[in-house]
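Submission checklist for the structure archive. All mandatory fields must be present; incomplete records are returned to the submitter.

[x] Identifier: Acyl-coenzyme A oxidase
[x] Organism: Anas platyrhynchos platyrhynchos
[x] Residue count: 693
[x] Sequence attached
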Amino acid sequence: MASTVNLKEANGNQSSWDTLLPDFPKGPLCKYRKKASFNWKEMAVFLDGEDIIQLKNRIFSALENDPFFAHRPGEDLSREKYQELTFLRCKRLFEYDFLTQQEIIENPLKIFNMVICIGMYDWSPCLQYFLHCGVFAGTILSASNRFADLLGKVFNMEIFGCFALTELSHGTNTKGIRTTATFDRSTQEFIINTPDFEAAKFWVGNMGKHATHAVVYAQLYTPDGQCQGLHSFIVQIRDIKTLLPMPGVMVGDIGKKIGQNGLDNGFAMFHNVRIPKENILNIAGDVTAEGKYSSSFKDVKERFSASLGSLSIGRILITAVSATNLKLALSIAIRFSATRHQFGPTDEEEIPVLEYQTQQWRLLPYLAAAYVLDYFSKSLFENFVEFFAGLLTKQRSQRQADLGREIHALCAASKPLSSWTAQQAAQECREACGGHGYLAINRLGEIRNDNDPNCTYEGDNNVLLQQTSNYLMGWMNCIRDKVPFESPLGTINFLQDYHHILGRKFTAVSVEDCMDSSVPLAAYKWLVCYLLRESDLKLKKEKQSGQSDFEAKNNCQVYYCRSLAIAFIEQTVLQRYHDYTHDPNIPSALQTVLKNLSALYGLWSLSKHLAVLYQGGYVSGEQAGRFIQNAILELCYRLKDDAVALVDVFAPPDFILNSPIGKASGELYKNMWSEILQGNKALNRPSWIIFAK
Ligand SMILES: CC(C)(COP(=O)(O)OP(=O)(O)OC[C@H]1O[C@@H](n2cnc3c(N)ncnc32)[C@H](O)[C@@H]1OP(=O)(O)O)[C@@H](O)C(=O)NCCC(=O)NCCSC(=O)CCCCCCCCCCCCCCC(=O)O
Ligand SMILES: Cc1cc2nc3c(=O)[nH]c(=O)nc-3n(C[C@H](O)[C@H](O)[C@H](O)COP(=O)(O)OP(=O)(O)OC[C@H]3O[C@@H](n4cnc5c(N)ncnc54)[C@H](O)[C@@H]3O)c2cc1C
């Protein structure tokens, strides 16, 4: 990936690192910072590069110095006020114009980092902004270049957009979408209709209050009465000046959610809403003036994939968004754990809770996951950039099609992996901070609730995993027939060795033998092949017993295809991180800690599959399982003194993290006390109190 640039920059000197990354205030965390095996500034520059750090600094300091983004300790905003503030903040983001088109073209990772920086502050304005200029505008941009005028208005914020696929009664099942777009030859228009309230567009971000335009997915009907399948259309839903609904549109807000309440999610119904013929986003197909359907895709399936292709970037970014939530939660929990003293070997001496084996085992594997998933999401984003360039230049090569399929299969599993990891970590971090973790000002509840929908939107995690297992099962014929095969990104190439891999066994004979990520990686390759074989056999058995294709597939999910998809993505994520951390050009001072993170993530993830590893005979005997467990504990212990510095590398400034117990000074109690007393109602007498006489 960007490692060549970063390797060059990593040779920079201490003074340039100091200019980019100021020292933290002195305080109780110094004790751990001094014990770290590496320089956190060197690591930050190595991972991101100076250019990205400068961008992050620019964004963070703009938000910190802007009264619109000021925090109000102890104030409970009403939902309406929060929505208003979110919109005003979103508008400010436009005014800042943090990145030029040229900068994005030169380094697309900058837009990726911009999403993360703003989201670290609050996901509501971040999603509002990117649903408008990323998802809404991005879908239009990838379809055609005939919407330049409209896109100009998007980027000037003269109109406001949303992406309307889901309906009240169908979400993940996109084939079940029932909104219709019927072509009227006589007026050269499409007529958009909602057949009944169950087909109302629902859940749509920005639609509740602000959106004036929507990308609406609908079943396209040609004048011959034929349904041509799912297509997308630009539909104006509100008047630009008054924000009143356009004729034939009923639009509203769906109400309070568990999290992300600054964002207005809405519903809409359409009654004979006419839009010009040009408003079809002709990615999958188009209609001639005479009303004939035309598509450059011969296959209905290919057309369907093309019409949903724009979802992949969202899933990749959700992988990154979730990894960001992981970083936020860990920044708070690890800084807390390093400064919170409880119990100790003697009555006089209390020790930081980070010194407890349990606390290390609960938090440090997630710290490793944050590094691994962060790297993976960036590398997958870069793969997508290559794919997107092909889309924009209308490439129709086999490689382009294969790349689209492979990226789809990867992000359909990396979104579940990352969002579930962040979900579990947020809860673990909340509990790891004891009672203080439950105090809203410390932000762990907000992180947990705002992360939660990452498991659901852009496709429910459990259903998406089926896309990945379908992709893997699709290679079985080549494997059986021993036909050579490969994929553009090479993620399935190891399956060519399937028969050979299935014959392998776990060979480590000591804990020390397990301390490198090559050990879990080899085990994962076996696990993927084994689960592939078992899933294939199970599917055959189901079919032989007379089950329909639908039933047979359904009966192969739990313990088979679902586990296969999870094992495959964990293997892929680990493979990329292993290769990255084992590059001999990595600065020598960083090699050990990065390799430890790689090994810990690999072993910890693998340990959840121990039952299957024993079941399939890859490992046997009591010792093998013990080696893995002890290696995990040993790696946690080795990483314990690096944990604060590892968090310093990715934690945003205090203002952005917005958690007294997570502040960089580590003055845990002073920071909490000060914030509590700043609460404008902390010392108020209740106005409602009446005691019984
Ligand atoms: C995937 C489905 C579940 C499939 O359902 P089916 O079972 O009905 O179909 P099949 O399996 O038969 O599929 C047929 C065929 O198509 C292929 N396919 C499907 N999808 C794709 C795809 N995306 N790419 C390529 N190929 C695809 C599939 O593999 C099959 O091919 P084969 O037979 O050859 O295997 C599907 O129905 C589905 O996608 N369901 C989920 C619906 C969904 O995702 N809805 C989303 C609604 S919008 C939403 O939720 C938004 C929420 C908010 C999001 C916040 C985003 C945060 C990030 C910020 C974004 C910033 C962006 C800025 C970037 C920028 O500036 O650019
Ligand atoms: C905060 C938020 C924001 C959103 N923003 C948008 C937006 O901007 N635009 C938009 O169009 N949509 C949006 N959505 C909708 C979102 O994309 C859908 O909720 C999502 O795709 C899941 O679909 P669903 O709700 O219909 O769940 P369903 O698909 O109905 O799933 C319900 C349950 O059934 C299970 N299930 C379903 N099918 C199967 C199967 N085949 N096998 C096994 N289990 C199955 C699922 O695992 C799940 O547990 C948003 C949702 C949320 C929560």
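[x] Structure attached
Curator remark: Residues 467-641 form a domain with the Butyryl-CoA Dehydrogenase, subunit A; domain 3 fold (CATH 1.20.140.10). The mean pLDDT is 95.
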